[in-house]
Design brief:
Layout lengths: L9 E8 L4 E10 L3 E11 L6 H19 L3 E5 L7 H20 L4 E4 L1 H9 L6 H12 L11 H17 L1 H5 L3 H8 L7
Parallel strand pairs: 1-4, 4-5
Antiparallel strand pairs: 1-2, 2-3
Helix pairs in contact: 1-2, 3-5, 4-5
Length: about 190
């Protein structure tokens, strides 16, 4: 992962919320630390595909097409969370792996973030709901209410991309130094009054 001092003035980040039924994705363009712009968001629906291997191919193809369309500097993906159902975790891990493989095949650097880390970076709380994450993504990227997606998987993909941006531009956040007081001082635009 590049250090904050090597971040170019413009960076395109593709965020992926992996899934084998719905894969959310979002592309953002970052100009400097504070100018963030929505490029594309969406969700790949695969509930009608019964063969798991065909779902994985569909994920690979979609991630590859997003990379070819937007030439991102980085791909950020949400890591599978540890749940009770081992089969579900295995399938989710495969979906994540296929997305990572597509990025690596295109020589795009990859980063992985735990779900709690994504929520914390975007909302300030690792226990935030999907609706809270979507609301903060909407405000941060200035998305009109009528343009918000019906399914929150797309905003989850954008949240992963935003998390990666914050990771790259806020060394105090990812180094663990300074805590929230330092983070707030460095990011006054993210605080609602």
């Amino acid at each position: 992962m590049p250090s904050p001092s090597t971040i170019s003035s413009e960076r395109v980040i593709l965020g992926i919320d992996p899934g084998t039924t719905i894969m959310g994705y979002g592309v953002i363009c970052c100009r400097g630390k504070n100018h963030l712009e929505l490029v594309e968001m969406g969700a790949l629906h695969m509930s009608k595909i019964k063969d798991h291997a065909l779902k994985l191919k569909r994920i690979y193809d979609r991630v590859s097409s997003l990379i070819e369309a937007h030439t991102p500097d980085d791909l950020a993906v949400e890591a599978p969370f540890f749940g009770q159902n081992v089969q579900s975790m295995l399938k989710l891990g495969r979906a994540q792996g296929v997305a990572l493989a597509a990025a690596l095949a295109h020589e795009i650097p990859v980063a992985e973030y735990a779900p709690r880390r994504v929520k914390q970076a975007v909302t300030g709380s690792g226990a935030a709901s999907k609706e809270q994450v979507a609301g903060m993504v909407q405000r941060t990227l200035k998305i009109r209410i009528e343009d918000m997606p019906k399914h929150l998987d797309a905003t989850d993909g954008l949240a992963v991309a935003l998390c990666h941006h914050y990771q790259l531009t806020s060394p105090k956040m990812h180094a663990g130094a300074g805590g929230w007081k330092a983070f707030v001082a460095d990011n006054p635009e993210r605080i609602r009054r």
